[in-house]
Amino acid sequence: MKRAFFLVGIIFAMNALGTVPGMYHEGWVDFNKNGVKDIYEDPAQPVEKRVADLIAQMSLEEKIGQLHQTTWDVGAEKIYKDQIERGDMGSLLGGGEIIESPIHRNALQRFAVEGTRLGIPMIFGHDSIHGFRTIFPIPLAQACAWEPELFERTQRISARETAAGGNDWTFAPMVDLGRDPRWGRIAEGFGEDPWLGCLYAAANVRGFQGTNVAAPDRVVACMKHFVGYGAAEGGRDYNTTEISEYTLRNFYLPQFKAGLDAGAWTFMSSFNCLSGFPASADRHTLNEILRGEWKFRGFVVSDYLAVAQLMEHGVAANGDEAARLAITAGVDMEMVSSNYETLPQQIQDGKVPADVVDEAVRRILQVKFVKGLFDRPYTDETLYQGAYLKPDAVALAREAAAKSCVLLKNEKNALPISKAAKKIALIGPLGDAAGEMLGCWASRGRAQDAVSLAAGIRAKLAPGSKLTITQGCNITNATAEISRAVAEAKRADVVILALGEPRDWTGESKSRTKLGLPGRQLELFHAVAATGKPVIVVLFNGRPLSIPDLTTNATAILEAWHLGVQAGNGVADVLFGDTYPAGRLTISFPYDVGQVPIYYNHLNTGRPGIGEYKGNYVDAPITPLYPFGYGLTYTTFQYGPVRLDSPTVTPGGTVTARVQLKNTGARAGTEVVQLYIRDIAASAGPRPVRELKGFQKVRLNPGESREVAFSLSTHDLGYYDTAGRWLVEPGKFQLWLSKDSAAGEPVDFELISGQ
Ligand code: BGC
To answer: Which residues fall within 8 angstroms of residue 666, CB to CB, at 6 or more apart?
Structure first.
């Protein structure tokens, strides 16, 4: 009913625009302009039949056009008109300076729908990673909220805004496991844990696609980057990865499968070479696992120029070979490069089977039908104004910003700050830097939409209180006015240092070799700390930093990441106690870059622990500065002993674990109780020293205590062998209910065969 109503609107709009006469009918569009309602034009027909009918009408050249995506910007109408009308383009990828209205998109779409023989609509893609215009915290930060439902809500708004701007498809979630903070794209993912990553991957897909991806305010999700991209050697973007099948199955693939199970319709193949062959031409992962084992029915798009880059990788001598390798491996759509143009000749020469192309076209068309592009090819141009930064979006951005903060240190109850503080000195290059708050991949986010920390603090101050703002130094280079900062600190009751990374040091192609604070920020910190004033450090960054000096010398440290448009308000809510910090790290912070990769769910060595002939460093600890799961609150929690209902469990049964949790401090707070297991001996390969398998966020008032109970099914005790089988094996296990991955004492239980 709604769709019919919408179509009438489109028909009206199109007729008013003077488009092809007689093409738009109530309830259907005559895409091939033959005056007859073909099966593919009939919304009442099942998608499979519509796809088959359309493919049967297509020439080989029209099919190849569907496999091609190119990039566009304002002004593309002139550049691409001929190409689109020739049928050479199935999709457009919008980035750059595209304005936030669907007008340009509709103009381009009209060339495809009205200017081509079969009128096949294009699908428009865009990178909305953590928001479109309302920018939410970077995904890594949102993962630290340990609240996938919150992520689903932020990504739902992201979908709404992205769609209003004329996009049908978004290149997210990025579910690459992050173990190496040198890699700039670690900001786009969820951290180092595959189990939590699965929850976030699924939440993102639900947030984008909803229950009906064809709805005008929904977008198609894209699982990326398939696969192993985050394991780049040296943390250098695009670099080679070597991942054993066992590690791939247990750490790198599960998040992709979770997104697929949540309904994701597209995947993106990654740039990296994966264990000896480029992932964008890797038959094993694309054809055998994704298609064969997982039965993925949607389509795979290559990453940007990744098909052409098969030549740079050194597996294709020319564009023909690159195209052949990619399409036969299962890459259906070529992003930006145009090597697939060689396919008609290659089919004629018998080098590529024609049905490989048909299959790729079928997958792409299916997604276009599922997205409703054949029923509603145009975006409503009346809705985008007022679609962005709506009050519910802004309120959610603030909630997400506050919930993403992780309190790393809080001595002398420096936090929360009293609103009655008379003189607050805000020092540091990120204190009044609204634009930096947006983080990497900030889509259409604008600095003027963003709230700086200074603005957030100002809004909290009581009348008569004073805030001074001093940069102290530039974020990355040598410019410094440290003496002025020190003078301000001396005069203040409360000193807040806003330090971190600029947003353009994070994201794609932004790898680092050092993980400390860039520029002279550490010098600034030491100079201010030397005044003897308690120093509250707020960190804005897109990756874990190695900050042992701050850990030792700061009074309080709040990890605030790049939190998006409401960063300043969200952080100020936490700093002044209007809410409390409830985030926990989903990625380890190293002492030193030399420890990288360092992650909690590692395998044991044959010589665990520290001591002579153990796996020590002579110059650094083997533990991280802050472990996975770590985070403080404004109160304290006490854990009682962990109790199991039974020390044994049989297959199909449940392990129930309980712990008494008490808020022993003076304030309300939320504890994230984390459940970890360890499988003591596994036949197909050793299991990690700890694996997260559950968590609960528990809010307690001062003095309150509560039993927290977890039920773990025996399915949760399994793991993948190298053939992708999920094995649940009898034997001994350990279980922790603890505040982070390094805390607590394990209890033992045994999975017995039950015979
Ligand atoms: C990135 C992808 C992104 C694509 C399109 C590439 O450079 O690796 O993550 O989706 O560009 O913008």
So the answer is: 635, 702
